[in-house]
Model the fold of this input.
Amino acid sequence: MSLARTRRPVLGAALKDAGLAALVAAGLFLPMVGLRTDVGPTGALFLRTRWTDVLLLMAIVFAGRFLLRFWQEWRAERHGPSVQKRLAGPLSRSGRFVAPVLLLFALLLPAIPGIGRYELDLGILVLTYVMLGWGLNIVVGLAGLLDLGYVAFYAVGAYSYALLAQYFGLSFWICLPLAGLLAAFWGILLGFPVLRLRGDYLAIVTLGFGEIIRLVLLNWVSLTGGPNGISGIPRPSFFGLAFTAGGGPGSFADFFGLEPSPTHRVVFLYYLILALALLTNWVTLRLRRQPLGRAWEAMREDEIACRSLGINITTTKLTAFALGAMFGGFAGAFFATRQAFISPESFTFIESAIILAIVVLGGLGSQLGVAIAALVLIGGFEVFRDLQEWRMLVFGAAMVLIMIWKPRGLVGSRNPTVALGEKRTISAAMVAEGRG
Amino acid sequence: MSTPLLEIREVSTFYGAVEALKGVSISVAPGEIVTLIGANGAGKSTLLMTICGDPRARSGRVIFDGQDITERPTHHIMRGGIAQSPEGRRVFPRMSVHENLLLGAQSQGIDPAPGLEQAFTLFPRLEERQAQRAGTLSGGEQQMLAIARALMSRPRLLLLDEPSLGLAPLVSKQIFQAIRKLNAETGLTVLLVEQNANQALRLAHRGYVLVTGRITMSGTGRELLARPEVRDAYLGGH
Ligand SMILES: Nc1ncnc2c1ncn2[C@@H]1O[C@H](COP(=O)(O)OP(=O)(O)OP(=O)(O)O)[C@@H](O)[C@H]1O
Ligand SMILES: [Mg+2]
Done:
C-alpha cells in the first residue's frame, strides 16, 4: 500500500524531469545536429535536415535522464545508507595505503620491465598534470579562489625559460627558479586587481588574464616568434653532464660508462618532473599545517570571519596566487625543456579547463584526489586515443558520471591539519550534509 | 567614570549614499558590559563593524585605549586588543573546532594553549567536540565556538553581535551567563549588540538605544528597562 502511494509521485517527477531534459536537448540539437550544410556537386552549399537524428538524440536524453532520476528516487526511498556512506569507512582506511603505493609505483616505473619510451613519455605527461593540478589546488582547492586562467602561469614559466635560454644562454637549472619567480610575480600582478572579487567575477577576470597572456605571446612576434613559437630550446643537463645521443666526452653516458641511449634522457626527465611534483606536494602539505595554509582554508570558508580575526586577507590571497603561479611556472619551464619547442598553441583555455577539471574531480583540496584524477583523466585520454573525436564525448560523460557518483570529487574528505591524538577524517558524507 | 577604553565620537558611516550611522557617540569604560539595542536595520552591526574599520567611518573618530584607530587597517585593529564575534557566528564550517580556535589566535602570533584552556573552562562542551567539524555543531555550540574563537586573541574589548540569535531561551541564558562570568572574573570589557533587549539590559551595566543610525537614549540597564519607550518598542509592551 505504501508502495502504491509513494511510487506514483516518483514516476511522475522522473517523467517530468526527463521531459524537460529532452526539451533542452531539442533546443541544443535542433540547430547543431538537425541542420547541416553540405557542399553540393556544383560546389554550392545546400542545407540538409536530419530530424530523425535529432529525435533519436532526444529519446536517448529522455531515457537516460529518466533512468537516472528514477534510480536516485528509488534509492532515496529505500532509506538504506547510500553506497557512498557504506564505502566511506573502508575507503578512507584504504586511502592510507593508496598514496604510498602510488608513490612507490611512480618511483619504480622506469625500472619495471616492459616499460618503454612510450610509457615513460605518458608518465611524464601525467606527472606534469599532477604537478599543475597540485599547483592550482593551492589557489582553487585551499584558498577557494576560482582561477580559470591558470595556464597563463604555465605559459609564463615556459616562455621565461625559452627566452632566457635563447637570449642570454642561461642553463635550465638557473632558469628553473627564475621561471618560478617570474610566474609568481605575474600571479601577484593578477592578484591585485582581483582582491575584491569572488566566485563568478573572479573566474571571468582570470579567464581574461589567461587569454591576454596567450594573445601577447601570439602577437609579440619580435620577441616570442608569435605563432611560429620558439624552437631549439636547450635540454637540461645532469649536473653539467649532457644527454647527447652519440655519447662522447662530457656526456652522461660517457661519465657513468654506459652505452649511450636516448632513453637516459627520458628517464631523467621523468624523475625530474616527479621530483618537481613531489616538491609541490611537500610544500603544500607543509603549508597546510602552518598558519598561512590554515588562513587559506579559512578564507575559502568565510572571508568576513577571517577579517574579524585579524587575518590579512590581502597577503593571504596574494600568497595563494603567487605560490600557485610559481609551481605553474616550474611546470612550464619543464614543459619547455622537454618539448624543446613551444608555441602559444600549447597554452589555450582548454589547458586551464583540464587542470581545473583535475582539481575538481579530485575533490577540491585533496592532494591524493588530484593525483588520481590526473592519472585517470590524462591516462584515459591516451587509452581512448583510437576513439578520436569521440574522446571528448567519452570524457564529458565520464566526468558527469563521477560528479553524480561523488559530488565532492573522488576524495571529498578533509583531514584536520592538527591531530588530536587519534586522527579523524571529516567524511564526504558529513561534508555533504553540512551547510559548507 | 574612569577614562573610557573605547570611545566613539560623532561617527557617521555610509554604504554608498546611504547613511547607516548618523553621528553616533558612545563610550565604554574598562571592565564594563555595555549593550546596544535597536530594531532591525538600526545600524547596530554597522557600528560594531565600523569599530573594526570595515566599513570605515566617513567622519568622526574611533578611539581605543587612548589611540585613534579610525584609519587603521582592519587586521591591525583586530590584532590590537579588540575581538569580534560577528553576526551569524560565522564559524569555519569544514574545519574542526580545534582549528577554528587556533585561527582565533594565529594572527596574534601567540601561544594558543592558555586561550584553549580558558575556552574549555568556559565552554566544556567545546572540549568534547574539538575534533568535530564546526559546521555540524548545534547553533548554541557554534555560538560558543564563535565567542571562544574571538577570545583566543586575548582581547581587552570583546564585541558581540547578537549572540542569542536563533537560540532557545535556555541556551541563550547559558551564553549570557558565560559573558557575565568572563566579565566578572577577568575584567573583560564587552560591547554587546542584542535584539533580546530584556536579557541584554539585565546583564549590562549600561545601555544605548540606536534608532535608524542615531542614539536616542542611554542609561544604566535598569534605567532603560524601566523606561516606557523602551518597554513599548523593544520588550513587546506590558
Ligand atoms: N553591506 C551593506 N551594503 C549596503 N547597505 C547595508 C550594508 N550592510 C548594512 N546595510 C544597511 O545599513 C543599515 C543598518 O544595517 P545593520 O546591519 O547595521 O543593522 P542592524 O541594526 O545590525 O540590524 P539587525 O538587527 O537586523 O542585524 C540597514 O539599512 C542596512 O540595509
Ligand atoms: Mg545586525
